[in-house]
Fold this sequence. Notes:
The chain is 45% helix and 7% strand. With 751 residues, it is α/β, with parallel strands linked by helices. Among the domains are: 28-148 and 169-189; 469-611, Leucine-rich Repeat Variant (Alpha Horseshoe); 613-750, no CATH class. It has a ten-stranded parallel β-sheet with strand order 3-4-5-8-9-10-11-12-13-14. It has a two-stranded antiparallel ribbon with strand order 1-2. A two-stranded antiparallel ribbon has the order 6-7. The longest helix has 17 residues, at 47-63. The radius of gyration is 35 Å and the shape is elongated. The N and C termini lie far apart (72 Å). Residues 404-750 form the Protein zer-1 homolog-like C-terminal domain. Keywords: Acetylation, Leucine-rich repeat, Repeat, Ubl conjugation pathway. InterPro entries: ARM-like, ARM-type_fold, Armadillo, LRR_dom_sf, LRR_Zer-1, ZER1-like_C, Zyg-11_UBL_adapter. Interacts with the ELOC-ELOB/Elongin BC complex. Part of an E3 ubiquitin ligase complex including ZER1, CUL2 and Elongin BC.
Amino acid sequence: SLKMASDSPESLMTLCTDYCLRNLEGTLCYLLDNETLRLHPDIFLPSEICDKLVNEYVELVKTDSIFEPHESFFTLFSDPRSTRLARIHLREHIVQDQDLEAIRKQDLIELYLTNCEKLTAKSLQTLVSFSHTLISLSLFGCCNIFYEEENPGGCEDDCLVNPTRQVLVKDFTFEGFSRLRILNLGRLIEGVNVETLLRPLASLAALDLSGIQLNDVGFLTQWKDSLVSLVLYNMDLSEEHIQVIAQLHKLRHLDISRDHLSSYYKFKLTRRVLNLFVENLVNLTSLDISGHTMLENCTIPSMEEKMGQTSIEPAKSSIAPFRGLKRPLQFLGLFETSLCRLTHIPAYKVSGDKNEEQVLNAIEAYTEHRPEITSRAINLLFDIARIERCSQLLRALQLVITALKCHKDDKNIQVTGSAALFYLTNSEYRMEQSVKLRRQVIQVVLNGMESYQEVTVQRNCCLTLCNFSIPEELEFQYRRVNELLLNILNQSRQDESIQRIAVHLCNALVCQVDNDHKEAVGKMGFVMTMLKLIQKKLADKTCDQVMEFSWSALWNITDETPDNCEMFLNYSGMKLFLECLKEFPEKQELHRNMLGLLGNVAEVKELRPQLMTSQFISVFSNLLESKADGIEVSYNACGVLSHIMFDGPEAWGICEPHREEVVKRMWAAIQSWDINSRRNINYRSFEPILRLLPQGISPVSQHWATWALYNLVSVYPDKYCPLLIKEGGIPLLKDMIKMASARQETKEMAR
C-alpha cells in the first residue's frame, strides 16, 4: 500500500488534490468562527476523490514540513451524504481517536492504520461502526489500540495523585465483521488473545501476525479452505506450527521470515520442512524464508548442478526441495540466508544479498513494515552504488526515496538512505534522471536535515546537495534550504567537514540569483552568520576554506543589495576586514573576496560616508599596489576608491591622505594593469560601472570604469558585449568621448 516515488508527470487529479489540500479555505472549505473548517454546503464528492484527499493529506503531513495539519480535517468527511470514503490509509501520530470517530458514519471497505500509536481502545469501538462493510483492515503497529484508560477512585483530587492507568481490553472480538477477509494485526500488543479475537470471522483470506508470539496456532485450521495468504514474520516457530501450516492447502503466499538479529530462535529450517510445504501447499506462488538458518543441507551438490545459463526451472533448482514445484515461484524471499547465492533459484523475483536485483527486491518487499531489514538492504545498495555501477538506477532511486519518506524518524534508514542517495545522484548518473525525480531527492534530503541533528545524516545530506546545480535546481525550495544551512552553521558545536560543505553551499546559493532572493536570505540572518564564522576563524588564527567561502558568500549576497551591505557595516564587518588583512597579509584569495565585497558596499551612496575614514582610505590606497590574484585586489581597491571619488572633493572629510595623492596612485595602478588580463570576477549588470561615465567630477573614476568595460568586452566578448548594449552603454560612451573634462587616454579607450 506504499506510495512509490514515481518519475512520470503527476496526473491532473493529483495536482488538483494537492492544490485543494494546500488551500482548503480557498477551495472546498470556509472557516467557522475563525477556527473550525467546514465544507461549503454545495459540495458533494464521491469516494474516488475523498479517498485521495484523505490519503494525500496523511502523506503531506508526514513528508512536507511546510504543510500545516488541520485539527478539524477529518470532520469534513463526517457526513456520507456530501463526502464518501471507501478506502483510506492512515499512519502514525497524524491520526487520533477523535479523527476516526469523526468518520464513523462512512461505509469503509478498506482501512489501513499503520503505526498509529495515538489510537486507544476508543477507536476499537469506532471500528465496530464499520463492521458491516469492512473487507480489509490493518492495525499494524497500533500498539495502544487495545488499551483503555481506567480512572481509579473517580474523585478529582485522587486523580492528581493517581493518574489514569492503562488497562488492556479483553472482551473485544471481531464479532459482526461479517465481510472482513483481509486482516493485519502485525506487532499486536502482548496479552491479547488472538484466537478469541479472530474466532468470529467466517472466512479469512489473508492474515498477518508479524511479530506476535503464539505457541499454538491450531486455530488457523478453521480457515483452511479460505486462507490464501499468511504472514508469521518473526514468530518463533516449532514443529507444531509447521504441521498446522501444512494443512492450509489454499495458501498462495506464506511468509515465515525473521530478522536474524532480533532474538535467539530455537527453530531451524530443514529440507524436510521445505519438502512438506512443496508437497502440501500446491498453490504456493510466493514464499519468504529470509533470515533462517538451514539446519541440514538443502542444496544440490555443485557436481550435480546443471551447468550453463542460470535457470528458474524447478527441475534444475539448486535448492533440492524446490525441484518438486509444479512451476517457478513468483517471489522467493532469501534475504540474509545462504541460499540466495546459489546458481539456479526457481523464482521470477528473489530477495537476497547476492546482487543488485536481489537487494532492490528486498528493499521493495520490506520497506513498509520492516525498517530494520530495509536499512540493511539499503546499506548493501550503498556498497553497490559506491563500488560498482547501478544498472537499475531509476528503480534504486525511487526505492530509497520511498523508504526515506516512509521512515522519516528511523535513524538507521536516514543514515544509510542519505548515504546511498549521495552515490545515486552523482554526475555519472545525471543524464538518466528527470527534474521530477531530482526534486524528490532534494525534498527527502531536506526532510532528513530537518529531523536529524545527527552528524552523519547532516553530512550525507549536505554532500548530496552538492551533486545538484546550485542555485538552479534548489530554487524551488530556496528559503528552506537556506534556513536549514544557516541553522547548521549557527550551532555552537560544529563538525569541521559539515561546516565547510555548508558554507560552500551557502555561497553557491547566493551566487547568480535575483536580488529579492538575496534580500530574503539576508533577513534570515545570513550576513550575521557569516561574520560569526569569520570571527571564530580569526580567533583561531586560521584562514581556511571556511574563512574564504564566508567572505565569498558575503561578496555574493551584497551584490546590488543595499540592505545586506548595510547589515555588513552594522555588524562590524569593517573591523573584521581590517583584522583579517592584518592577520593574513599573504592570503591572496581572501583579499580578493574581501575587496569584492567592499566594492559592493562602495556602490551604495548612503553607505559611502562610513568608508570615509583615514584608516580605511589608507588601507584601500595601499592595496592599489597589491599584486594579489593578478590584478583583482588592486582592481577592486581602485573600484572602491572610484565610487568614493565620484562623490566629489566636498565629501572628502579627512586630512590624511590627501585626495590628489590618492588620485595619483589610482592613475598609476590602472596604467600598470595588463588590458588583456583574464578575470576572476562575474558581472550580472554593468549599471554600477556605467554610472561613473557621465560625470566630470572625477576623471580617474571615469577612466577606471572605461578600463573595466574595455577589458571585459575584449576578453569575454560573447558574454559582455550583449550586456553592454542591453544596458545602454554605447550612447554613454559616445557622449563621454565628447566631454572636455575626460582624459585623452580615457577617450581613446572608449572609442
